[in-house]
Amino acid sequence: MATTKIWKVQKRLDHVINYATNKEKTKNNYSKYGMDEFDSIRQVMAYATNPDKTEKQFYTTGINCEIEDAVKQMQFVKIFYGKENGILAFHAYQSFSEGEVTPEIAHEIGVKLANEMWGDRFQVVVSTHLNTQHIHNHFVINSVSFKDGKKYYSNFTNTALLRKISDEICEEYGLSVLKENTCKSGINFENFYKKSMRDSDYYKFAKEDIDYAIEHSWSYKEFLKRLKEMGYEVYFRANKISVRRYPHKRNIRIERAFGEEYSIENIQNKICSRYPSREEVIKPKTYDRRLFYKGSTKKLRKPKGIIALYYYYCYLLKVYPKKKLNYKLTPKMRAEVKKMDKYSKQIRFICKYKLETINDVENLKEQKKEELQKILNTRNRLYYKRQKLDNESEKDVITKEIISVTSVVDKIRIETKLCDEVSDNSKMMKEQIKEMKDKEQEKINVKEKKKNKDKKKDKSK
């Protein structure tokens, strides 16, 4: 049985650099610290890779970094993206039951866990400690991603994901798994894990692709072949199917993620129980006939300002949305469709409030903030009122009012966020359109220069 935990490492960056450069401060004095008292990357790294605990560092591995220069490499990423302040790193551990694993297996599990959990975006140092009766892994994770400069957030969802991946890998090695759903603090991490899957495009697209492969396969062997054709690597561990698609490093065990109906046996039964759907051609779809508008176009109001910008931008993207697509979309195409759904939502928002300028957007945002504050005050009064009540039926009435008010709060927050998105996107669109026009003008100028040169040559002949 493996347990996991993660906490932040936070201190001024100049102190971290002093630890990295001052030899007097890097002496082995870490026995006086508790595990959650480390507040610099140097301290955590020194503890995690302490030779006295790791048998001469035989069980230390760097992911996206070298062990010897891990601190400097993590600091370089922070400086490169200008994010030296705030949380500097995260320190996590994975502890096994006494006598359950060997040091080699424990370290192998730790490296797999780090790769699947953080390896696609963050630098991680993995070390396996042998100095206690319970063999355990330590992980030091840089808080800033080397890939995009974004910071890692250790929230309930990511903590749930860490536990779930740890359990999956332990099961693959035949180790026991912690079965309790609710921890001592009363938090059910299973719910946070399910939410992370609902919100993740990676999981969502994987499920769509698996369903598509099942529907269009004549045999189980062909089902696996189709998954590979769609860019998935397929793994079999403990008689379970796991899939992964580049650039993600996280394996998805489909039975655990999507339910028992996705076990190997149930997938085989699904395929054998009916004929597969007819194969569909994977190719771009365009309109092949003319569209006619009924009525006079003279009476139509010409769009202006931001809405005109959005329409023109969509025209440049050559997007022709259609409600029902009869072909399989690739991951890139699905990402573009998602982007267009986002633009469509923003266009409807612009039309709803008749926004034409950035000032209109800013004024609406201020108005929404005032509305939000009033509603929040109302909700706080309801909370206070409910606390004073003893009668359960009266409490239920107030609770319903609170739920109703909260739904309004959520809508206003969404619209406030849309104001920010419209403001940012309009600037981005203008810049991209200008850049595109400049490039087109450059091409025209080059062609004209070439024509003039050719004319001069012809005259000289």
Stated plainly, the CATH topology of the largest domain is called BirA Bifunctional Protein, domain 2
Number of helices: 15
Which class of the largest domain in CATH terms?
A: Alpha Beta
Shape: globular
Strand content: 5-15%
Mean pLDDT across every amino acid position = 76
Uncertain segments: 12-39, 278-287, 320-327
Structure description:
The protein has four domains: about 1-185, BirA Bifunctional Protein, domain 2; about 200-270, no CATH class; about 305-355; about 360-450. It has helices spanning about 15-20, 40-50, 50-55, 70-80, 105-115, 155-170, 190-200, 200-215, 220-230, 255-260, 265-270, 305-315, 330-355, 360-390, 390-460; strands spanning about 1-10, 60-65, 85-95, 125-130, 135-140, 230-235, 240-245, 250-255. It is of the alpha+beta class and about 450 residues long.
Task: From the structure above, extract its key features.
461 residues; 3-stranded antiparallel β-sheet; alpha+beta; single chain
Summarize the topology.
Blueprint: E1 2-10, H1 13-21, H2 41-48, H3 51-54, E2 60-63, H4 70-80, E3 87-96, H5 103-117, E4 124-129, E5 136-142, H6 156-172, H7 189-199, H8 201-215, H9 220-229, E6 232-237, E7 240-245, E8 252-253, H10 254-258, H11 264-272, H12 305-316, H13 331-353, H14 358-388, H15 392-460
Antiparallel strand pairs: 1-3, 2-4, 3-5, 4-5, 6-7, 7-8
